[in-house]
């Protein structure tokens, strides 16, 4: 392995059965393969330059969107690929006398081992997922890693291993090659779900960045489609939400998630169909599980932190979400916001409102306030500003007489890298 | 001490600030690191009520905290002047100083820049 954790030098047995030869790969600094050098026989070099391949300095073919243009005898012959839904090259054909002629056919075992039915010359090695098969190694080059379809494992650890801690760092496509691919050796692409009723693609959206909510991918590849929320979770914006899969259905052992959480029994999920309102207000998770099992997470859960809608068939990978990692509430970023207007400052603010005669704003969720502030720093280019407060935002005004009111705005006062104070107010 | 709105309006004229009456964190919002020396001078030379003096010291401490974020107070010249003001009536500023000291905060990155100075002052007085 080289420093990029990519294959570098191999010593391989000659095809004749006696002796060995050296196979060497060269890459650029980004890990793009530039050259393959083999000492087998009289030796050969293959150069890779932006979709053009050269053998021993002479152009071999140029890749095209539909296949490749093969340089033969001073001209190019165009080849076209027919692929399956995973992008695997199944049939390669060319046009001969205005007739499409099959010149190579490939079938595959689920994890990509080739079952070649026929070949052409020069053979098309861009096969499983349209990745280049390294004929000396029997491995596919995906870019970030090489993949061995015989053992269904990558040959090096996942560069994004920390993002998929539920899986082996060497697994391919979450061990579900019928459903998943891996376009670059880093991770399977984002999931697409389809509503089982309408057939429309459904998406996960707006769960995030500006409200500080992360999407967490929960794959479940074995067909049980089970889903569980770990214990000790409070499924609202005040805390993190963790979830995990279990093999026996939907389990929930934590505290109440909301007034209408019910029936969280272990029913395997035949389908899952969830909707969270895009805007604030009551949100519901309905119709989890089969028609006889409904899990509803009721009012005021999430409070409009985005939208989720989706449906997944049994065995499909589906998605859930969690509140982002807590923001560190430093003085350099948030100044006096939380030492004056934070969730623990009720007594201080009550006294200040009473003594000063001025209603005082209080954030009731420091993390939510921190996310709001961070998400609106770009509004402060022209100095302090008051922004409309999102509906149901956890904040209140403490009046001089001790009563509470709902703020209408949040005032942000900028400092060098954040705010020097921020507070709810009524305008 | 709680600063009343009427006190702030009086200081508003004296200091030439744009207080509208709605600002909840007057001292923080009008803190100006470029006017620390000026504010100290006004505090030294102007006849002020206790409430006004308290409010002005609030503004001075907030301004000095911002000053330290961008400047070095060579030989603690400004801080020495602030200490003189504090020493005139340390009891008056007790709750203000304890606010800035953040005694319950152990993590240094969660302190204000002047918190160590304030803590040191309170420990020695």
Question: Proportion of β residues of chain B?
Answer: under 5%
Strand arrangement, major sheet of chain A: 1-2-3-4-5-6-7-8-9-10-11
Mean pLDDT of chain B: 89
Helix-residue proportion of chain A: under 10%
Question: How many domains of chain A?
Answer: 3
How many runs of DSSP E, i.e. beta strands of chain A?
Answer: 31
Helix-strand string of chain B: HHHHHHH
Bin the helical content of chain B.
Answer: 55-70%
Question: In whole angstroms, how far apart are the ends of chain A?
Answer: 64 Å
**Rg of chain B, nearest Å:** 14 Å
Structure classification of chain A: mainly beta
By helix and strand content of chain B, what is the structural category? mainly alpha
- For this structure, the quaternary state is heterodimer
User: Alpha-carbon distance between the termini of chain B?
Assistant: 20 Å
Describe the protein's architecture and organization.
The complex is a heterodimer of chains A (about 425) and B (about 120). Mean pLDDT of chain A is about 70; it is low at about 195-325. Chain A has helices spanning about 330-335, 335-340, 345-355, 365-375; strands spanning about 10-15, 20-25, 35-40, 45-50, 50-55, 60-65, 65-70, 75-85, 90-95, 100-110, 115-120, 130-135, 140, 145-150, 155, 195, 200, 205, 215-220, 230, 245, 250, 270-275, 305-315, 320-325, 360-365, 385-390, 395-400, 405, 410-415, 420-425. Chain A contains 4 helices and 31 strands. Chain A is elongated, with a radius of gyration of 29 Å. Chain B has about 120 residues and is mostly helical. In chain B, helix 3 runs antiparallel to helix 4 (about 50-70) and helix 4 runs antiparallel to helix 5 (about 75-90). Chain B is globular and about 35 Å long. The relative contact order of chain B is 0.13.
């Amino acid at each position: 392995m080289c420093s990029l954790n990519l294959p570098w030098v191999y010593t391989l047995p000659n095809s004749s059965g006696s002796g060995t030869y050296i196979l060497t790969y060269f890459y650029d600094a980004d890990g793009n393969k530039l050259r393959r050098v083999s000492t087998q026989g009289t030796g050969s070099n293959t150069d890779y330059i932006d979709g053009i391949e050269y053998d021993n300095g002479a152009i071999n073919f140029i890749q095209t969107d539909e296949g490749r243009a093969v340089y033969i005898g001073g001209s190019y012959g165009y080849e076209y690929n027919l692929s399956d839904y995973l992008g695997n090259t199944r049939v390669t054909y060319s046009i001969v006398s205005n007739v499409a002629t099959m010149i190579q056919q490939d079938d595959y075992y689920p994890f990509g081992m080739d079952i070649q039915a026929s070949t052409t010359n020069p053979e098309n090695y861009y096969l499983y997922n349209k990745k280049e098969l390294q004929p000396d190694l029997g491995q596919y080059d995906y870019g970030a890693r090489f993949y061995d379809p015989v053992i269904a494992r990558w040959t090096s650890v996942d560069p994004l291993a920390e993002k998929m801690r539920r899986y082996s760092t060497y697994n391919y496509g979450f061990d579900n090659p019928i459903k998943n691919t891996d376009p670059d050796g880093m991770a399977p692409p984002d999931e697409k779900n389809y509503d089982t009723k309408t057939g429309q693609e459904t998406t996960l959206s707006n769960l995030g960045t500006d409200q500080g909510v992360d999407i967490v991918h929960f794959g479940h590849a074995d067909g049980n489609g089970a889903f569980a929320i770990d214990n000790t979770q409070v499924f609202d914006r005040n805390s993190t939400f963790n979830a995990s899969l279990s093999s026996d259905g939907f389990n929930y052992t934590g505290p109440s998630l909301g007034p209408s959480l019910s029936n969280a029994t272990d029913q395997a999920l035949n389908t899952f169909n969830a909707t969270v309102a895009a805007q604030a207000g009551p949100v519901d998770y309905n119709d989890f599980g089969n028609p006889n099992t409904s899990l509803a997470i009721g009012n005021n859960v999430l409070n409009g932190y985005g939208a989720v809608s989706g449906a997944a068939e049994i065995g499909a990978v589906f998605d859930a979400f969690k509140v982002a990692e807590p923001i560190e509430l430093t003085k350099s970023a948030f100044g006096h916001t939380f030492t004056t207007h934070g969730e623990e400052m009720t007594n201080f603010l009550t006294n200040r409102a009473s003594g000063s005669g001025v209603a005082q704003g209080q954030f009731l969720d420091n993390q939510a306030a921190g996310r709001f502030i961070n998400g609106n720093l770009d509004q402060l280019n022209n100095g302090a500003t008051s922004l409309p407060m999102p509906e149901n935002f956890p904040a209140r005004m403490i009046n001089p007489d001790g009563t509470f009111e709902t703020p209408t705005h949040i005032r942000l006062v900028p400092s060098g890298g954040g705010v020097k104070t921020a507070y709810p107010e009524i305008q | 001490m709680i600063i009343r709105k009427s006190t702030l309006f009086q200081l508003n004229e004296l200091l030439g600030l744009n207080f509208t009456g709605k600002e909840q964190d007057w001292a923080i919002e009008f803190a100006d690191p470029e006017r620390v020396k000026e504010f100290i001078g006004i505090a030294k030379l102007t006849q002020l009520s206790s409430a006004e003096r308290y409010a002005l010291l609030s503004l001075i401490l907030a301004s000095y905290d911002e000053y330290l974020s961008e400047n070095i107070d060579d030989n603690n010249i400004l801080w020495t002047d602030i200490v003189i003001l504090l020493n005139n009536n340390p009891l008056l500023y007790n709750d203000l100083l304890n606010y800035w000291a953040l005694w319950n905060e152990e993590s240094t990155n969660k302190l204000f820049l002047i918190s160590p100075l304030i803590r040191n002052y309170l420990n020695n007085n």
